[in-house]
Amino acid sequence: MADNTPAGSTTDGAIQVGGPRQPIDARVSAPASYDVADFPVPHGREEEWRFTPLERLRGLHDGSAAEKADGAGVKVEVTAPEGVTVETVGRDDSRLGKAGKPVDRVAAQAFSSFEKATVVSIPKDTRLTEPVRVAVHGEGGVSFAHALVEIGAFSEAVVVIDHTGDATLAANIEYVLGDGAKLTVVSVQDWADTAVHAAQQTALVGRDASFKSVIVTFGGDLVRLHPRVVYGGPGGEAELFGLYFTDNGQHQEHRLFVDHDTPHCRSNVVFKGALQGKDAHAVWIGDVLIRAAAEGTDTYELNRNLVLTDGARVDSVPNLEIETGEIVGAGHASATGRFDDEQLFYLMARGIPADEARRLVVRGFFAELVQQIGIPDVEERLIDKIEAELKASVA
Q1: Whole-number Å distance between alpha carbons of 210 and 12
Q2: pLDDT at 21
Q3: What's the gap between Cα 225 and its chain centre?
Q4: Which of 17, 188, 249, 381 has the highest count of CB atoms within 10 angstroms of its CB?
């Protein structure tokens, strides 16, 4: 199934719009490699690149950015509770790549070009009461980065990765979960308006482990994130939540892939976005593959988009491919629409000013996702950011 829903319309997994799509398994069978030479330079007509304005990647896709990298483009600081090990390692560290190889040229370039990787290790049978905080601050220039978060069996932890400042950054982030582990990752893209950020985020979920990802994207000229989930044993669960607010001229692209290749695993995907301003462009691709061996799978993915002004564009493409009939459930849905005038009228009829009513509707739209974060200071900051975006649109 595939979908490319225009503004103001809805699909619930039974409609194919916008012509044929490349099957998910064809994209999966494409080579995954650490070697940049194994990936041709994209030209924009490939399925995985057709929505991305390549000229705005500043050479991350064709190798020219690597010639400008000086290793000083971003500064990484990790604040971790007692018991957590934080290391800086070289590319020869055997733990790197455990979650999976790069699947496109930018990710391969990032792996080939980073100088040092950050490794955060949480030992088994550990329950952290405070989050691990990773601050990634751009200081200009071109950078390539790699990070690994490894959580031992039956441990529980929350990791917050906060991107700020200005940079041209390509990165790979790995999350490796031991059996029975529970890991929540909150990734915030609060870049300056001129930043470019492309990253592959891969989670390897162990037997009976639970992985929750909350991706929040506000800033940047171009942000292209590729979250991926693979399962290392039966009983694994993955929840992928996302919130994005796309403003004037911004391109924000989230391309998800959940690979159900193991029996009796579950996944749930919910992404919501709001757009405003001329040439604001949001892209959401949700690929879920249930392989023949993955009996007992239960999966669902949902994307909702709220267009606040004229001039904004949304491309939403949920894809679900099923190779076995022995599943618990599978489905997807996507909807894009204008601001709900009825809700606005309802609030204004009760004496609420138009600007305040507008903020209440948008806050309600995002509320369930903000609550998934579970960290008060981060939630408050994101609500303030939403408020600031809305005030800017009114002004």
Answers
A1: 27
A2: 63
A3: 5
A4: 188
